[in-house]
Design a protein that fits this description.
218 residues; mainly alpha
């Protein structure tokens, strides 16, 4: 049973539940579960909470009258995610996917420095993990660390184009938000960043992503 979970740890993709670990724990008393199996259980719970939070956010976007209430519920889901994932990484510190998802939940609750620490840990364990590179760059954006975001984009453009495109969208949103509300950022800095994005968009239009390249869990 433990061997099956170890194999799952080696191959788990972000957004995918610990299938082997989850099914193998159903017929075993909880007191007999290993720390790794309990970690897998907490990770799976966190994935369900994330999906619930996303659903609530979508409803909030479609229903402005109830948006505040729905977003508060989503925030509660993210905070529950944090607790579950802290338990998961305590039980299995090598689970880089859990560190990455913890960073995501922390970022969604506004703890950007905590999110960066979690992403850094995920990348310490797996330096070529594109989800963590992209999510960390979004946290850098929230902190107006534009050079760090640019560096992440250039890396992802070379090795994980789908994630580079996601980050590009986030950077374009950052420009729109800062033009509406500079929040202490010099307008000239926003304009310079916008020009950089236009240049990179032009390059991306000329260079097609590698044919058949899947989104990978490296």
């Amino acid at each position: 049973m433990a061997a099956a979970l170890t194999a799952a740890l080696a191959t788990l993709t972000t957004g995918t539940a610990f299938g082997a670990g989850e099914s193998s724990t159903m017929s075993v008393p909880r007191t007999a579960l290993s720390p790794q199996q309990l970690a897998a259980e907490q990770y799976n719970k966190a994935l369900k909470m994330r999906d619930k939070a996303h659903e609530l956010e979508q409803k909030a976007a479609a229903d402005p009258a109830d948006a505040e209430k729905l977003l508060k519920k989503a925030d509660k889901e993210y905070k529950s995610m944090i607790r579950a994932l802290e338990s998961a990484v305590e039980g299995e510190p090598r689970m880089y996917q859990a560190h990455n998802l913890l960073g995501y939940a922390l970022r969604k609750t506004g703890d950007f420095e905590g999110a960066l620490a979690a992403y850094d840990k995920a990348l310490e364990l797996n330096p070529r993990y594109p989800e963590a590179i992209e999510y960390r760059a979004e946290a850098h954006l929230k902190l107006n660390r534009l050079e760090d975001a640019k560096e992440a984009y250039l890396l992802l453009f070379r090795v994980a184009r789908e994630h580079a495109d996601t980050l590009m969208s986030a950077m374009e949103t950052w420009v729109e938000e800062r033009r509406a509300n500079p929040a202490g950022v010099d307008p000239a800095t926003v304009d310079d960043f916008a020009r950089w994005l236009e240049e990179r968009s032009g390059v991306a239009a000329l260079i097609a992503p590698p044919f058949g390249t899947p989104a990978r869990d490296w």
